Amino acid sequence: MPDAMVMNPAIEQKPTRPLDHYGPVWESIRRLVPEATLLRGPACLGPAQAAGTGDLDILVPRDFQSVSWFLKKQGFYRVYKPQTYLERYRFQTVESRRPLTIDLYKAERWGLGFRLADGTDIPTDADMAALLHSVADGKGTHYFERERGGPPWQKGMGAKPSFGLFERALWRRERLALLTLGLLLKGIIRPDVPLILGNCLRRIAFRTLQLTRKTGLEVALIGVDGTGKTCLAEALSRLPAPVRVIYMGPHQHQTRLMRFALRHKVPSLFRQLAFRFDLLVRRIHGAALARRGWVVVYERHPAERIDPLKHSYKYKVKNWIDKLYAWPVDLTFYLTGDYPTLYLRKKEYTATYLQEIDRRYSAVLDYCGISYERIDVTRTNIETVASTVGRRVLEKYQDRVSVDRWPSIFKSILA
After folding, report:
1. What's the rounded Cα separation, in Å, for the pair 79 and 89?
2. Could you tell me what percentage of the chain is helix, strand and coil, using 3-state DSSP and rounding each to the nearest 5?
3. Which of 83, 152, 238, 274 is packed most tightly, with the most Cβ within 10 A?
4. Which CATH architecture has domain 210-411?
């Protein structure tokens, strides 16, 4: 019997402390470690290098662990970065469209492990800092032009480095690997071999983790017409996380086989099999995204078409086929409510028919052993439902992506 939890939106949720601005966080870190340097960030905070527009890059020469503990105490959690010379922390709330992101640098480095060739740790020229950040760090040439007001040959950077016709063509096409090679050949940067080897080891460890553990999340919505599945899916797509909504209904086909079946007069059996194959492709796509760290929201549950209330041989075969793409998801939200109220929302199906379908959905969840969280959508508005579900999704997502909650063997490599 699955664990069903009735979520009452009227119950006050445990409050989280929103950090809407980077300013208070940076001021607290500077008081904690006076030697800390703001390398990049919003221009209003006066960063030492490129006047960035968003995330904070902070160089912490000492007491690095104390700053890390401070951020965790404020609700930040650590996420994966391949570089050994920095740690990335994020803070997310349902109300924000973007997560707060702070990179703590143990040393000023770029890319896999490049350092300045002249032996200095921090470039004194803001244009050079932005150039290294956009090219060697992979931010992109548009980043430099946006932050510094144009390409480097228009910024008076002189002959260090010089940009000829070939380099300018590479710049316009964003060939960052070749531009980085050019910086190496011109003696602007040099590789730090131990750092590069350490970063490669971390990448291998992370890819191995993705093979053994899903770093993202699969969320499914199930409920009769009028429960607000589409509106809720759209609200979840605005969470401060990488979200992809995949429709598991009879439209938005993704395979040529299904489109062929719709264009031609094919037997009904072939059309049904083509449709199931199309759903299987959608589910595989969603599972692959979740494996790479995405939040995948299935608008309509993959197991929705299973019908355990009918016991004929035909339906047993149909259920067996439908189970091929209905393996368990991580979170299931069962949307239900008062049937006459649901009928008034769309007036497409009678309240009696909605009750019958809802009874089948309940039987499907029990039959498949799916744990779910039940939400009465007729007792509150869609905004409250979206906020409640969004908090639950973000909480589960943070459990997956937080480095501190990964298996010990991977934490030891990525520490």
Report:
1. 6
2. 45, 15, 40
3. 152
4. 3-Layer(aba) Sandwich (3.40)
d(CA 387, CA 167): 49
- Tell the residue number behind the tokens 């035909």, with chain if given: 314
What element of type H or E holds 53? Answer: none
φ, ψ of residue 42 in degrees (nearest 5): -60, 140
Domain ranges in the chain are 22-201, 210-411
Q: What is the pTM of this model?
A: 0.83
Structure confidence by residue, pLDDT tens digits, 332-377: 999 999 999 998 888 888 999 999 999 999 999 999 999 999 999 9
Q: What is the pLDDT of residues 165-191, one digit of tens each?
A: 898 999 999 999 999 999 999 999 999
> Cα separation of 147 and 132, whole Å?
13
